[in-house]
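Thread: quick sanity check before group meeting

JM: Hey all, I'm pulling together slides for Thursday and realized we never actually wrote out the predicted structure for the chain we discussed last week. Dropping the sequence here so it's in one place. If anyone has concerns about the input, flag it before I start.
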Amino acid sequence: MWTASESLRQLLDSLSKEQRRNQELLVSLAFALRSFTNLARFLELVPLVAMRLVEAEGALLLVFHEDGRLWREQLQATQCERCAEVLRQLAALNDSELQSLSGDEAVTRFLDQRVARLLGQAQVFATSVACRGWQGGRLYVFSSRVGFSWSDVHRRHVQLVADLTAVALENDGLVQQMRRHERLDRQLSTGAEIQARLLPDHCPRIAGVELAARCRPAFQVGGDYYDFIPTRPQLSGRRREQGRWALVMGDVMGKGIPAGLLMTLLRGMLRAEVLSGHAPGRILHDLNAMAQEDLAHSHRFVTLFYSDYDPRTRLLRYANAAHNPPLIWRKQSGQVDRLDAAGLLIGLQGEADYDSMQLVLDPGDVLLYYTDGVTEAVGFSGERFEERRLADALQLISRAATGGAQEILEQLFLRLDRFVGADRTLEDDASMVVLKVDDAVSLPPLLQGPMAS
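JM (edit): ok, ran it. Output follows.
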């Protein structure tokens, strides 16, 4: 016969074995949480561990997306016919039915009632998988065994499993967010590469003038574009320097790779159109007609200032498709003027006319092309840099400059950086091109004013 002490020893041994088993189960789940990179593999273990911890008949795990939708691909259960049927019924729930309920408590009551009805006479213990900021799921453990009861230890064990599941869901959310950021970084890198290839890697030599150009990229890739295009590319050497050159500044409305790709497309069209030798207004008219369909499909528009310069006569012809008008500092008067001409955005409508204008540049004049990333730059006080501030800076710098176009460009960017602040970034790309006429150049003046398209 068993003595009282032997019965007590056997009970203690049994309890000790149960504790060791439960510890091993929880350690295994924690190891899986630390080791698995596949969320589904971890979630498959959750119902199994929860069931074995309390020696129940089965367990179910319902998982939600952060927006409250049932995550059907991640519904898990222990292997039994009753669990499989319950999962089928729950997977058939309409998302709108759950999302129409007001709050997590209403969703919990609805699901608890549905699960209890599907499981029949079984005793069910349910607990929430509580993630930070949203309910990640609901864990159900059930048993129909006679005499089965839920102890406080059972409840704590199941809750611990639910908490580890919440950690797994949060970790997966962080991993997915990191991957999205990595994809975005790759897209930004690709966009930056596209944009960099659009921009000339150096300024050309043009007789009688000096050029300097720079694009200051913002965090996001924009659609800034400037270009120097020979109207007679077959020329070389001194004849090329003395030939007419197209000077272009543009901006695609929008950011990222689509903006860069669209500007690549327009760059090719524009370079082909420059060879026609037409007046600036006609070139923008033809470019708009050619690009209309592509821009309409992308729901984007382009601002573009087109000009061409003849070093032999110092004649600058220009047309504008709603781009920021360049600024010109006239050395003789010491004043800054705007170069503007009437014209719509490229891509806004199929038939658009663009005025052609012209003027002669005098020795020492400084011409500044720029994009709206310059004038729209925001300073410490929330004010924008604006055209007036840029014009004042151009006037002061041009008057005081002892060097050429590069010095003026550097000083303009220095003023912009001081305004924005050293520890702050631009919201949009800021591009500037400076053209300075040599002081020694002296040619007879030409008639200025409107010209035929």
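AS: nice. Confidence is low (pLDDT under 50) at residues 444-449. Residues 199-450 form a domain with the Phosphatase 2c; domain 1 fold (CATH 3.60.40.10).
JM: adding both to the slides.
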